[in-house]
Write a structure and sequence with these properties.
mainly beta, Immunoglobulin-like, 1 helix
Length: 120
């Protein structure tokens, strides 16, 4: 399946339907990471994209970044957030070592915390 993501809203106990997510390919340089936008997504009712972010055919070894628009999602759900927001966007930088394997990057998130892991 390549690369996929899934977001669960731990405040409300449901998938994060409607959350905006951006995928970047990154490369390190002496001045820092250079990130190139690959695609933007809006998560479906299951808190997932409608298809893989990359298929096994497209996925390449390298470094990537997923950026989840957490504050906008919770504001749209009617959550009163402080200004400035504790979490605005959550950026996850990760590496793909074996492009022939499936990489699943889930995010469990509330307005005040998040966790992630390499899923299956």
């Amino acid at each position: 399946m390549g690369l996929s993501t899934h977001v669960l809203d731990t405040m409300h106990g449901c998938p994060a339907a409607g959350m905006a997510v951006a995928l970047y390919a990154t490369q390190g340089s002496a001045q820092g990471d250079v990130a190139s936008l690959v695609a933007r997504y809006v998560l479906n009712a299951d808190g997932r994209t409608d298809g893989p972010l990359y298929s096994n055919v497209e996925l390449q070894a390298g470094t990537y970044r997923l950026v989840f628009d957490v504050a906008a999602y919770f504001k749209a759900k009617g959550v009163q957030l402080p200004e400035p927001h504790f979490l605005n966007r959550v950026s996850l930088d990760f590496g793909i070592a074996h492009a022939d394997q499936h990489y699943h990057v889930p995010l469990l998130v509330s307005p005040w915390s998040y966790s992630t892991y390499r899923g299956s």
